[in-house]
Every structure is written in structure tokens, then in C-alpha cells.
Specification:
OB fold (Dihydrolipoamide Acetyltransferase, E2P); 18 strands; alpha/beta; 7 helices; Aminopeptidase
Length: about 350
């Protein structure tokens, strides 16, 4: 028998039944007709009291791999042993989701958190999302993918100087971890400013379901839930240790044309290596791009049509032994070496 879907104005966790998964539509705003814009939530409430673990997907409307991760996690939980509550927001950016696009309107939602109660449409939307839902979390994993025209590895962004988020990042067991302080206007950053340990999990590519990445993400989430004692511990094959990067950045074209990017995601690259080639519309090579540093490919462009300023490749700068001592043992950062 299908679970009845409840439509509510507020997320009241105390009112929801224990030992059950509730399907909710929570009103977040209203459209131009005055009809409610309702976010779909799955809330699993265990038999025992405990933390509130938040999982969010589709802050960008075309980033879909997180949706089946949530669905499979909630459908396989043993609620008799679950301690606490899992609140899974299946789609955050509902307007973008309906239009198959990244943004809600002209603004990237993940650049304006925590929003503003009396701001424009997008700022009010994220502010109410924070106030109604996120502030109830004790932990958060925010699920993303690459955007149109790009591909990603399976990687985590986390503040690796924070003991809890560093632990969450490693337990997720991605291919790559990027140290990324949360002093920004992302959902992760806004949660961290509220004292909620949060990481961002990038699950591959946009507008599709990738079964291998979905499965690995699900295993990682269960490992994190086990670590915070919400589900029983069980042996997990951890696989290869993630590559830890102390920083990352995108490389961009300085002229337009048809772009080909050579290295694949997760591949190491060396300083001076040719990583891309730009041709004009007649097939003449107009520019070759070389890596400015040794690193690893986190993501890359796969869209050949590249105007000036288009993305080429997302390069991660691997952490040194000294970097690891700072990030993982909370020691002082290493001094920059003089050239």
C-alpha cells in the first residue's frame, strides 16, 4: 500500500510517526498564481531518539544523481534500528528542476545562501528553506553533480580542518577530496556557519542517473550514518584511499572556438602537459592549453562549443605531506617556499 503524502506549511518533526517513512510536500513559497511551491521530502523517523541527519539533492535543477541515492537509502533503512531522523529533501530547486536547468531564474541558488527574508524571489526561497528545514539538522550531506557540458569525478568538498567534516569526507570514500573552507554562500557554507557539520558530494554528471556512482554514494552515506551511531555498524570494503587536494581551480579559454580536452577525470596531469586544443570553425588549430601545475583532473568540459572564457578543466592540487599535517592534525599551515 502506498504511503499517503501529506501537504504541510512547516516541517514539524515531532508530529511525525516513529518507525515510519513520511512523504511530505512542504510549502516554501508561492508562484504567480498564488499556488504553493512545495518541496518533496522523505522523512525517516527511527524507533529511537537521536540526531537529525539532512540530505539534500538538486540545489541545481539539472543535477539529478542525488535523487535515486536518497530514494534507495530511505527504501532500505531498517527503522527498528534507526536512531534519530533522516530528513531527505529530494529536490531543493523545484523551479529549476521543472525547467531542466541549473538555476532557479538568473541566479545560482548555491551562491546566495543563507538568503534574505525580504529579498528577491531567489533569496526569499533559500532563506525559507534554511529557516523551515535546514536549521533542524545536526548533520548535512548536500548532493550535486557537474552541470551541462561538463563531467565530474566522484568527489567531496569539505573543510578538512574540521574534525567531523573531515571524517565525513573520508567515510564517503570518494575518488577525490578537495579541502574547501566553508566561508562562502553555498548551502554547505551556510550550514557550517550554523554549527552543522556539512559536506558537498559531487556525484558525476548532470541530467542522468549513473548506477556505479549512485551505488558508491549510497554505501558512503551509510558509512557516515553508522559513524554517527544512527544505524548499526557493518563491515564495508573501503576501496582505494581518496586523493586529497589542498585546493582546486578551473582553467578557462582566452579565445573562442571548438574545444577538445584530452585527460579524463581522476587522471594525474603534470605542469606543462597539453590538456586541451582549440580550433576555429574551419578546423585550424588556434590555441593549445597546457597545465599550469602538477595535479589531478576533478572535472572537465565536454562541450566543444567554447566562447572566450569557457571552462576547460577543473584541476586539483594534491596535498603534500606538510599539507596533510596541517589539514588532518590541525597544525599550523606550512610556510610558502621561496622560489
Amino acid at each position: 500500500m502506498k504511503t499517503k503524502i501529506k501537504r504541510v506549511e512547516e516541517l514539524d518533526l515531532e508530529s511525525l510517526p516513529r518507525g515510519a517513512v513520511s512523504k511530505l510536500f512542504v510549502t516554501i513559497s508561492h508562484d504567480g498564481l498564488g499556488a504553493p511551491v512545495e518541496l518533496p521530502l522523505l522523512v525517516a523517523k527511527g524507533e529511537k531518539r537521536g540526531p537529525v541527519f539532512g540530505i539534500t539533492a538538486a540545489v541545481h535543477g539539472n543535477e539529478l544523481n542525488g535523487i535515486p541515492v536518497i530514494q534507495r537509502l530511505l527504501s532500505t533503512l531498517d527503522l527498528t534500528t534507526l536512531r534519530g531522523t533522516i530528513v531527505a529533501v529530494v529536490v531543493v530547486n523545484l523551479p529549476g528542476f521543472h525547467k531542466n536547468r541549473r538555476r532557479m531564474d538568473v541566479i545560482d541558488l548555491n551562491h546566495i545562501f543563507p538568503g534574505k527574508a525580504d529579498g528577491n524571489t531567489s533569496k526569499v526561497y533559500v532563506n525559507r528553506f534554511m529557516e523551515k528545514i535546514v536549521k533542524q539538522f545536526n548533520y548535512l550531506v548536500d548532493l550535486h553533480t557537474a552541470s551541462f557540458g561538463r563531467v565530474n569525478s566522484l568527489y567531496v568538498r569539505a573543510d578538512m580542518t574540521n574534525e567531523m567534516t573531515a571524517q565525513m569526507a573520508y567515510l564517503q570514500r570518494p575518488q577525490i577530496i578537495v579541502h574547501n573552507p566553508a566561508s562562502d554562500h553555498t548551502l554547505r557554507g551556510a550550514a557550517m556557519e550554523l554549527g552543522i557539520p556539512a559536506i558537498t558530494l559531487e556525484i558525476g554528471n548532470p541530467q542522468r542517473f549513473q548506477s556505479d556512482y549512485i551505488k558508491r554514494s549510497l554505501v558512503g552515506l551509510k558509512a557516515v550514518l553508522s559513524e554517527v551511531k544512527m544505524i548499526p555498524k557493518r563491515p564495508v570494503a573501503l576501496g582505494a584511499r581518496p586523493i586529497l587536494c589542498k585546493s582546486s581551480y578551473w582553467l578557462y579559454t582566452d579565445m573562442g572556438g571548438l574545444l577538445e580536452v584530452f585527460p579524463d577525470v581522476t587522471h594525474p596531469i603534470t605542469e606543462g602537459e597539453t590538456i586541451g586544443r582549440l580550433c576555429d570553425i574551419f578546423g585550424e588549430v588556434t590555441k593549445e592549453y597546457k597545465s599550469p601545475a602538477h595535479g589531478v583532473v576533478i572535472g572537465k568540459s565536454v562541450n566543444p562549443v567554447s566562447p572566450t572564457g569557457a571552462r576547460i578543466l577543473h584541476i586539483g592540487i594534491k596535498a603534500t605531506v606538510e599539507d596533510r599535517q596541517y589539514l588532518e592534525r590541525k597544525e599550523k599551515p606550512p610556510k610558502a617556499k621561496k622560489k
